[in-house]
Amino acid sequence: MIESKCVMKSKRSLFSLPSLLSLSLLFFFPHISHAINLTLTQTPGGPGKTYTLTWTAATKSTDTSKTTYYVFEEFGRDAVGYDTNNPTGHANFVVSKYEETSVPIGSFVGSRGFVVTSSDSYDGRIEVSNTVYHRFIHLSQDNDGAVIGRTDGDGTQRGVDQIWKFTYAMDDDAYVTMRIYAPGTTFVYDANGFAVGFVGTLVKTLMENTPRSGELDGNIMASNGDDTWDSRSSSGVIVGNGIYYVAILASLDAGQSGYSEGALRQGSVLTIPVDILRVINLMATGITLNSPTSTISYDLTGDALVRVVIAQPGSAFTLVGGDVYPSNRTTLAADSTLIVSSFTFQRKAGTNVEAWDGVSSTGTVMPSGVYPIGVSASDDYGNHAVDASGNDFPIFTTITLERSAGSDEGVTTISDTTPPTLTSISPADGAEVSATVSTITIVLADDTALNLNGTQVTIVGPNNTTVTGTRATSGQNTIYLTFSPPLSTNGTYTITIIAYDTAGNTVTFTRTFTINIRLETNNFTATTKVYPNPVQNANVTFSYDLSVDSTVQIEIFDLLGERVYSQTYNDAMANGVTHQWDLRNVDGQKIGSGLYLVRIRATGGGNKVETVKKLVIIQ
Predict the structure, then answer these.
(1) C-alpha span between 596 and 598 (Å, rounded)
(2) Cα(415)–Cα(418) distance, rounded to whole angstroms?
(3) Interval 429-437 mean pLDDT
(4) Which of 15, 44, 136, 291 gives 20 to 30 Å between its CA and that of 362?
(5) What percent of the chain is helix, strand and coil (3-state, nearest 5)?
(6) Would you say 161 and 153 are in contact if contact means Cβ atoms under 8 Å apart?
(7) 515-518-520-521 Cα dihedral, nearest 10 degrees
(8) CA-to-CA distance for 259 and 110, rounded, in angstroms?
(9) Span 220-238, mean pLDDT?
(10) Which residues contact residue 507 at a Cβ distance below 8 angstroms, ignoring those fewer than 6 apart?
């Protein structure tokens, strides 16, 4: 409240002035708006801090004329509703009269606005100042700025981590209510200009009448961690993009106030630009002989599934369902045949780094050129990333790929034209292996640098069947192929290696080896079992070990030499191979009791072996 030199009868007394005559001059002379520069400063302190209102002197009509200043004060409104054509017509104004240009206002707790006008004693000319405000909720001590500070997860305004943090100070301790409203919401204001109602959709209540600390000793205090919004609704779902509203109300406790204006000190509405997902700061380094890998870096404002597409030189990009695709530069139609390489990753918010080695998805080492690279991102809530400016256009940059020697120094010299060489391979070329093969090892060499990722290896086994294994590399020159189960089929295996170096040179090597695993006679005989023996009213089990894939024939003979049962099996190499017999002959009839001979013959790996066992059957 202004400490007027005149006697004020009450806080809302409209004209507590020593003389209305001087003020009445305002109606009869023209005014000059904003010729007076008005400022409001506070003396640091908590509740009870004082303020000083200062303004520049008005222009006098004569050297001897006297200037009278009128200070208009209004509680509550952000904008003082001063009407220069009717300066005394606002019932909420408190008006005080001064001759000085700087006056102490004393202390108050609440939102207020001030306007100063002047009256010249000679010609009655009027000058009107700018409006200055003090807000109960404020960000800086001059009080003439934003009500609260609004930053995201990394202190910017981009919505990083889908978090919005609110920072503010208050004149005094107060109960704070903070709510988030959907785009399109309108608000209802009371007579003091405070937002006290809404028409629209409430998204989430961040806090309801929660005690918060006022500023102490003039320090601007940030609110605690509860005063944040995670871009989610009250049901926990990420909201869509749009301009949202945060309404903040502050009220004093009944024991604090003692103010005729009431406990509510401020009710303001601010906007929040929610743009859930952005890809920003996309950059890519070039590929040269000395730097064979491009580093692709970008920042995400939220967790997302990221798609990176490298396209043929000269391609453009378009979006299909929010995902980036290369497009024909003339027709702008999406064309997946222009994709050189693409990959997707689940990535966290923040800075992420990917890499490309200059090799296509099919293993082709790409030649020199300028390759466009596009990036898109989407989250589980259906949001698709836009760029830093918020435009829903493809996000892309380029990668320069230079295969020429000396390109790192910017000087093109003679290109590397020597292809890689094959240093060794295991099993060796032309080898005959009498055991299973679990690993094939390939060692290459090159004058510059090998491109192991681009090098292709295919294996064709017996009967022209393609054999696949698990591929790995070691160092800069070794490729491993492992097989589980190991290769065990007898026959010739052909290995074709198409080797690349980083200069784009390629060469094809063809190598063979043969697996010839013979059936181990002693082991087969020793491990063959027939049980139970004797057998009564049960099945008989035949068991044996095979050191190689084999054809096995089981035959049963009576003592007269008549064959009563025969069955042939194609068994894979294994230990403990088993088959069962239900004691029926070739006609499906139960055979009689007696002594029988069991002959088991195996053929595999170019070898034949047989063993004979006795079997007693009791029926």
Answers:
(1) 7
(2) 9
(3) 89
(4) 291
(5) 5, 50, 45
(6) yes
(7) 170
(8) 9
(9) 72
(10) 419, 420, 421, 498, 499
Q: Compute CA 461 distance to the chain's CA centroid, rounded to the nearest angstrom.
A: 45
The residue ranges of DSSP E strands in 220-338, in sequence order, are 228-229, 242-251, 264-274, 279-284, 294-300, 304-311, 316-320, 323-327
CA angle 32, 36, 40 (to 5 degrees): 145
Say if residues 611 and 546 touch (Cβ distance below 8 Å).
no
pLDDT digits (tens, 9 = 90+) for 532-583: 999 988 999 999 988 878 899 999 999 888 999 999 999 888 888 999 999 9
Confidence at residue 11, expressed as pLDDT on a 0 to 100 scale: 32
Q: What is the mean pLDDT of the chain?
A: 80
Instruction: Count each helix (H run) and each strand (E run) in the chain, helices first.
Output: 2, 46
Alpha-carbon gap, residue 354 to 347, rounded angstroms: 11
Q: With residue 42 as reference, give the H or E element that holds it.
A: strand 38-42
Dist. CA 153–CA 349, nearest whole Å: 10
For residue 454, give the nearest of 364, 366, 371 by alpha carbon.
Answer: 364
Paired residues of 374 in beta bridges: 309, 396
Residue 565, beta-bridge partner list: 556
Beta bridge pairs of residue 270: 246
CA 498 to chain CA mean position, Å: 38
Distance (Å, whole) CA 226 – CA 1: 33
pLDDT score recorded for residue 615: 92
| 346: number of Cβ within 10 Å | 8
The DSSP secondary structure of 451-515, one letter per residue, reads: -TTT-EEEEEEGGGEEE--EEEEETTTEEEEEEEEEE---EEEEEEEEEEBTTS-EEEEEEEEEE
Sign for the CA dihedral angle at 379, 383, 386, 392 comes to positive
> Distance (Å, rounded) from C-alpha 582 to C-alpha 611?
21
Q: Is the dihedral of CA 339, 341, 343, 349 positive or negative?
A: negative
Chain position carrying tokens 């109300």: 249
Give the tokens for residue 595.
């002594």
154-155-156-160 Cα dihedral, nearest 10 degrees: 30
At 336, give phi and psi (nearest 5°). Answer: -70, -15
Both tokens of residue 51? 């303020």
Beta bridge partners of 38: 55
**What is the reported pLDDT for 421?**
93
**Cα–Cα distance between 54 and 37 in angstroms, integer?**
8
Residues 301, 305, 311, 316: is their CA dihedral positive or negative? Answer: negative
What tokens were used for 430? 């032309």
Q: How far apart are CA 593 and CA 597, in angstroms?
A: 13
Residue labelled with tokens 């069947």: 465
The four Cα atoms 556, 559, 561, 565 give a dihedral, to 10 degrees, of -20
Q: How far apart are CA 383 and CA 240, in angstroms?
A: 7
Tell me: pLDDT of 413 over 60.
no
Task: Tell me the C-alpha distance between 544 and 577, whole Å.
Answer: 5
DSSP 160: G
CA pair distance 285, 297, nearest whole angstrom: 9
Q: Is residue 288 classed as helix, strand or coil in its secondary structure? A: coil
Angle (CA) 417 419 421, round 5°: 150
581 neighbors 565 (Cβ within 8 angstroms): yes
> Do the beta carbons of residue 129 and residue 36 sit within 8 Å?
yes
First to last CA, the chain: 118
